[in-house]
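3.2 Worked example (two chains)
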Amino acid sequence: MDKTAKLTAQLVFECIQDLHNREIPVTRERLAARFGVAMMVVDHHIKQLLSSDRIIKVRAGLYAPKFVEPQSRAVSTTFLNNGYIKLEIGDDVLQLTPTESRWIARAMAGLVGA
């Protein structure tokens, strides 16, 4: 595939992301109108994006970008002598009071095993 085709596929992908983020249904007709190209050009790039797993087919004729969960960061918990807890997630550090720790524990309890 030449450089122009890659650029066009990338533009189609970025347009799909933009429309999806603005909660506008992403259809082949809307993409063809946006770029002013024939439907077969849009179909070609949609097939490429589907096969490369960058977009998903929501239902017939409706597409959305595939959600990719960010890579998990390292998590560390340190219990301090004064009852505080130091919670480190990646580069972020929180020093929690005992009350704050209980609030977070209650909030996260429903997520255990999820």
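3.2.1 Second chain
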Amino acid sequence: MADGIVISTNTPWDGQMNGYGNVILIAHSVNGTVYTTLYAHLDSMSVTAGQSVSKGQTIGKMGSTGNVTGPHLHFEVHKGGWNAAKSNAVNPMNMLP
């Protein structure tokens, strides 16, 4: 999506994002607006909280952790911070090239 900063990495065992399995949250600034992306159900994560990441950088590997029936990437984009109610979720297709 865009360069950003890893906000957090969560595992199914930390109790913060049950059902999502291994999760990475990244904050991005796009044209002066902050967006948060969520990448869930990852098999592995190769970044840590506070780390700067670049557009196109590998941050983890798709998997089937959490409540899933098969391997896939659960991807969300939120204007501002992430929230479980998804009240600020935006269509990710509008954010991708």
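3.3 Remarks
The chain has one domain: 4-92.
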